[in-house]
Amino acid sequence: RTARTRYLGIAVAVLATSLALTAESPAVAAGTDGLGAPGQGDPYFPLAGNGGYTTAHYDLDLAYDPATRRLDATEALTARATQQLTRFDLDLSGLTVRSVRVNGRTARWTRAGQELVITPRKSLRKGESFRVDLSYGGVPETVTDPDGSPDGWIPTDDGAFVAGEPQGAMSWFAADNDPVDKASYTFAITVPAGYTAVANGVLTSQRTTRGKTTFRWRQAEPMASYLATATVGKFNVQRYTTASGIPVYNAVDPREAADAAPALAQIPAILDWESNLFGRYPFSAAGAIVDQAPDVGYALETQTRPIYDRAPDVGTVVHETAHQWFGDSVSLTSWQDIWLNEGFATYTEWLWEEQHGGQSTQATFDGYYARPATSSLWAFPTGDPGEGANIFASPVYTRGAMTLQKLRTAVGDAHFFSILKTWAGSHRYGNGTTAQFIALSEKVSGRKLGDLFHTWLYTAGKPAQP
Ligand code: ARG
Ligand code: ZN
User: Fold this and answer.
1) Ligand 1 centroid to 315 CA: how many Å?
2) Distance (Å, rounded) from C-alpha 191 to C-alpha 298?
3) Contact 315, 349 (CB under 8 A)
4) From ligand 2's centre to the CA of 299, what distance in Å?
5) What's the CA gap between 44 and 137, in Å, rounded?
6) Is the CB of 90 under 6 A from ligand 1?
7) pLDDT tens track for 62-107
8) I want to staple 59 with a disulfide (CB 3.0 to 4.6 A). Which of 40, 76, 203, 424 is the partner?
């Protein structure tokens, strides 16, 4: 959730040549030339992700020194070729690559912008599983998003705040940086003793020798690369298991601890309440990272363990926790559909209020509907934000939630809550599209909902009827 909305309107620098090389280009799509495409063809982020293979597991071994801000890493990636590959790309920006091996043999590589282009000695057969070993290092360069926000490896006064939506993962590891390609992860993060390194999933070991501590984390369930973190800082650590059996690991900057305590205390209640609404919690760990990162301006639903740039309020924790179902377990297929993440997480905040002594979701809807036609809320259609710079603005969040309120009043509570649960369940650990959500809503409710979604998702300007 963003603390402030930005319209800096920084254009995505997309070269015409890169468009010509995306997976949509017939020359590359066929896969007969053996060249893996440099992007997945997402219209908002054409170079994000790569063609020709899917990843299975990332093993990241990182050493970070907060004093020099230097990161040194080895990465082992396992993947499977979906076409014959004489050459393929990973996304990596900044840093210096020292070596690349494919299936144990030294490979040639070149760098071109965010593309790390790898040519294995021996081309990979379609269907072949392969392993890439990388060694790289340097001072990571924070990625600036189209909306002007910092993203990726963001240094702080006591470590680094690490968040990757939508494009920042490539600032600290080489990835197939697209939410359609999810993988499992293991992390070993070595930091000077006294610092804590927090990643996703379960802490499997923590060892200090010769003044350095290595934290090992395992994220077993599939994860999109933008949801990975390896945040470093001086943190208070709190660990417990909820009554429902979910292990919680909270890492909190001591300067934010007092302010964060009331919202963090609600985590077990929020997990139970959302599990009840959306179905079983999808992951084997939970928690929070509360950092002090003054120039960031947002929180992110890093998988299992959302990251906050300051002490969150309860609404923000409800929002990031809702993303564990909507965004993390059920992920986007295309960034254009970002309302499937943000509209749902925002609506969950409205529901929390309604069911915890606050105003009804209808009253919240009415309050927003009262905004004048000139309000930024109606600046572009929810389901078609138009460009990467718009994906975190109020037409996606608030009008996205308003769309769900419209759906709820149209189909009634029983069908509405069944739709949410079925959506989370049937796409668990996978991906979804707006078209699939509309089809599911029509199937569960037995109604034609095309006009409703057309008006609320795809029509420019303020809808004429509330
Ligand atoms: N998904 C986050 C949230 O609403 C927001 C991330 C904003 N990121 C950004 N680069 N502006 O929970
Ligand atoms: Zn969100």
Assistant:
1) 15
2) 25
3) yes
4) 8
5) 29
6) no
7) 999 999 999 999 999 999 999 999 999 999 999 999 999 999 999 9
8) 76
